[in-house]
Model the fold of this input.
Amino acid sequence: MGIHLYRIDDRLIHGQVVVGWGQPLNIRFLVLVDDLVASSDWEKDLYRMAVPPEMEIYFADVVTAIRNHAQYASDPRPGILITGDISSMQRLVREVKAIGTSPGRPRREASLRFSHARGRAPAPRPRGRWGRGDGAGRPLGAREAALRSARGRIAMILLEALPIALLGALLGLDVVSFPQAMVSRPIVAATLAGSLVGNPPAGLLIGVVLEMIALDTLPFGASRYPEWGSAAVVGGALFAAQPAGMPGALPASTLAALLTASISGWSMVVLRRTIAGRLERSRDRIEDGSRDALLSLHLSGMSLDLLRGGLVTLIAMMIFGSLVRAIVAVWGSDSAPSHAVVVVVAATVAGGALWKVFHSVRWVLWFFFGGLLGWAALLVTR
Done:
């Protein structure tokens, strides 16, 4: 028996794995190979919810999976080994000689095959009604297993995204509504998001990049501009969730943050128009001095802004989470060049923003250089 199927799936465990492959192959154990999941107890609990009782699930990082592969392969029960990205499977293929080979066939690098049923695909099932257990249709319990898998997957996605969405809602509220304490600046927001995910240095790194780009934004009056609070939370959370040193993680996360900033800026315009419509309907009561009308308009505006930031963050995390992982999995260059390109572009945008200030305000350039020299002297003397 042992491992009948090696599978690469960025969604890891879901209905297609548990029902589509698990039941035809009579799978009795799953090996989930993912560095992040292996280190998170609550994520393990969520994936256990997606697995039916008759299946056992093992969690391992790539190093542990390489070390224990012989144990998985010699298990008398049929099983499936799943990785969330191509790079993890490539590491397994390079280190484990049994993957990608069969008797009488030379091993080829990075080759994978389905080894179930001696290479034959599972036989098609006769069509029948749901819930029939007499062989005329799907076996009894398949629908329940599919529903359980779907519920577990939805619960996992929401539990992952909801804390980030709540942070995005609070920081989106800080931009223009309350308390405007500057915690929505990208360098702060991304660091907080990275801390929430468990990787504050990664959040700080992308926060510095986004802050340099955001310096070009002048949020004055009724001008339209990107909303950086929620966007920085999305970028910080996405980048912090990637394994350290993964090439493409910073460019992909920065792109996701920039797109979110643009969409979130548009949502602020829609919110202002909504509040303006409510103001127009309450104008007579406010002009009459109604305190209740004024409080209602004020509180509803802040509540809508809180809801706006949370929805933008939640939707962005749902969309860009899988997209960033897919980009990182196929990224070709090393991490150092990709990081350098992003930092150079951000520094260029920041330099252009500073030049607009230096060029238009007299003596400000000299004050800037004076402060820079003073800071450098302080570092040297210490």
Remarks:
- The first helix runs from residue 15 to 21.
- Residues 1-102 form a domain with the Fructose Permease fold (CATH 3.40.35.10).
